[in-house]
Amino acid sequence: MSKLSGTAYTYLVIMLVMIVLVVSSLELSYFASKLLPVAFAIIVFILSGVALGKDIQTRRKPKDSSCKIVTRAPPAEEIKGYLPIAAWIIGFSVGIYLVGFIIASVVFVGAYMKSHRSSWLASIITAIVCAGIIHFVFNTLLQSNLWPGIILDYISF
Amino acid sequence: MTEAFTALLHALGNFSSPGLWFWTFAGSVWGIVVGIIPGINVLAAMALVLPFVFKMDPLAAMPLMVAIAATGFTSGSISSILLGIPGEAASAATIIDGFPMNKKGEGARAIGAALTSSLLGGAAPVILALVMLFAVLPFIMALTSMEMVFIILIGLSFLGVLGRESMLKGLISGGIGLLLASVGLAIVTGEPRYTFGNPFFYDGIHMVPVAIGLFAIPPMVELAMKKGVDTLATQGIVYKGMKEVWKGVKDVYHHRWLWLRSSLIGYVFGVIPGVGAVGSVFVAYGQAKATSKHPELFGTGIVEGVIAPESCNNAKESGSLLTTMALGIPAHATSALQLGALMILGFKPGPTMIKENLDVALTLLIVVAVANVIGAAICFPIVPTLAKLAAVPGRVLVPVVIVLVMVGSYLFSGNIEDIFVALVFSVLGIIVQRFGYNAPALILGLILGNLFEKYLFISVQLGGPLFFLRPISMSLLIILIAFFIYKPVKNLIKRKPACGATKP
Questions:
Q1: Chain B within 8 Å of A113 (Cβ-Cβ)?
Q2: A123 near A110, Cβ under 8 Å?
Q3: CA B295 to CA B368: how far, in whole Å?
Q4: Cβ–Cβ under 8 Å, residues A43 and B178
Q5: b or e along B184-194 (b: 16 or more beta carbons within 10 Å of the residue's beta carbon)?
Q6: Residue A69: is its pLDDT beyond 60?
Q7: Could you tell me the pTM of the whole model?
Q8: Which of B80, B120, B450, B464 falls 20 to 30 Å from B416 in CA-CA distance?
């Protein structure tokens, strides 16, 4: 059996999730609560099944020269490409949770720019200006009280 | 009719407020800045502003959102012409002739033509939108919840099916959006659904972090992944000054019928859900070539090749805003976010908004015209400065935008968990993009899901299970069914072979 395409795997995942949704929806107490989730989950399941069938059928057919074949990098390599930026964003999010928006923003912007061949001066200035604008606009002007971070909150800054 | 006229007077009266002018100006500026920077699009710009909208006065927030969409496509032409890089996807058609014009030393002339076409294309169809609104008013007033059920389904189906990728993927995306809307307390019974016992989810999944995750973060991820292209400006900017710009302005007058046809195309495509900006501008470009006396010159740097797509680009905004406000179904991704903003502010887009807030609807349509005028007024004198914005390096743009999106995600509800939601949906957004699903249909399902459920249960309560037998409801149901069976029946008749294998 020929290997499934990446798209086919997404259909399979969606179908699996829909099965879980239907099963969990049926456990709800009221009919009115379960009707729409069950109905739409079944519809999406059917649509995904049809799409999966069409995808498998298309891949089995002899290739027509008029058909466009989009060649992508192998999945492992593609995922590898996302890892650096994913690490930056997740690291920044964790930083926000720990030390709050302002400090995390300064560190993130400065570190990102420096690691991407910016000079120290440009990185530091951009980081401070960015954090300064955010603090002024949101904390001072709009009184929004951005998340201070659990560490700073704990030591009561 | 008297009420409509009174509403129009109120709408015009709203323009005596300095706040409305300020936020229209702010939205126009933001739209222009974002439009010119390749890598960040109008959707991202609107998603960034969405968290702040709910804290604002409605007549400040909505002009801001509308102005961003109205002018975001104007400045995209500048980077298309001067740099050969579309500031917006919808400016891609402008590159075909705009960039060659720049290479020939006619860049300023092309910009003059582009900005004038955008201004007139964006402002003039507003009159048509106002006339159409008054013309369809009786029809809109006759709509009840029983019709709204099918209108929502039609809107979702059009947006899902007519999108760039496959029909099935579009429908799956819309269905997933509807399922996401069922998270939280059930609207009819109050029973918690898929909350995992966490009170954070009782209110459902907030639209704002989802929009940010789907539309604002993936473009930054893509930009960050572009190796060896740290700055997007790869060649020098050739710009000869205002005298040449004025030539472009006169070109639009000489080709006024082309401008009119292209604007009409944009407006009509704006009203119809699902076609999208990119499709409509290429249709406009195609008709310009087909009706030109010198079609062989298209692609070599001819001003008609700039006038047509730029007129069309801006004209669709008034049409899509009309559909969004009058029927409650957004025609495009930008209007989906506008719909979300209207709902955050307490409006009920659709017949209810037209009945109760007609003056606000009219104000917003007029704002489209005003924003286009402001946008052109800003762009004309400072084109070289604006062009430099397109050269902002990715290493600066990426972290700054990501900081803004995280702030925005948090600010909407003040819950740190919303950052987690934005992160999850940014992963989903990347998957949606990578595998060709339809992000606008997904977010539309999320926005309209609860409304759909509410209308459905009201309809069943009032009209029983056969509520769709009402004349208007039945007509809408027939349109929906015809829409779905048209393509498969057509394919069956033609017996086209399947095509489109994609390697992983």
A1: yes
A2: yes
A3: 33
A4: no
A5: bbbbbbeebbb
A6: no
A7: 0.78
A8: B450
* Angle value at C-alpha B28, between B26 and B32, nearest 5 degrees: 120
Give dist(CA B99, CA B93) in Å, integer. 10
Report in angstroms the alpha-carbon separations of B382 from B198, B236, B376, B377: 51, 17, 10, 9
Give the integer Cα–Cα distance in Å for B131 and B134.
5
What angle do helix axes B18-36 and B76-83 make, rounded to 10 degrees? 30
Segments of chain B scoring below 70 in pLDDT: 1, 38-39, 85-89, 159-165, 227-241, 273-278, 384, 386-391, 495-504
Across the interface, do B400 and A29 touch by the CB < 8 Å criterion?
no
User: Distance between CA B423 and CA B210 in Å, rounded?
Assistant: 9
Query: Following CA atoms B63, B68, B74, B77 in sequence, which dihedral angle do they give, to the nearest 10 degrees?
Result: 180
Q: Is B105 helix (H, G, I), strand (E, B) or coil?
A: coil
Question: Residue A119 carries which DSSP code?
Answer: -
Label residue B190 left, alpha or beta by phi (over 0 means left) and psi (-120 to 50 means alpha): left
Q: Does A126 touch chain B (CB under 8 A)?
A: yes
Residue B228's SS3 state is coil
The reported pLDDT for the residue numbered B231 is 46
Dump the DSSP string for B114-138. Answer: HHHHHHHHHHTHHHHHHHHHHHHHH
- Cα separation of B43 and B314, whole Å? 15
- Looking at the complex, does the CB of residue A60 fall below 8 Å from at least one CB of chain B? no
Give me Rg for the CA atoms of chain A: 25
Contacts of B457 in chain A (CB under 8 A): 32
What pLDDT, on the 0 to 100 scale, is given for residue B497? 53
C-alpha B202/C-alpha A83 separation (Å) is 33
A61 and chain B: CB distance < 8 Å anywhere?
A: yes
Q: What is the pLDDT of residues B219-257, one digit of tens each?
A: 888 888 875 444 444 444 555 567 788 888 999 999 999
Dig out the tokens for B360 from the structure.
Answer: 């606000």
A54, A93, B425, B427, B428 from B434: Cα distances, Å: 19, 23, 14, 10, 10
Partners of B185 in beta bridges:
B192
Contact yes or no for B34/B72 (Cβ under 8 A):
yes
Provide, as residue numbers in chain B, all residues whose Cβ is less than 8 Å from the Cβ of A117.
230, 395
- pLDDT, residue A17, reads 95
Q: Which residues of A touch B396 (CB under 8 A)?
A: 113, 118, 126
- For residue B294, which amino acid is it? H
Give me the pLDDT at residue B21, please. 92
> Is the distance from CB of B209 to CB of B412 less than 8 angstroms?
yes
Q: Read off the tokens for B260.
A: 């009119």
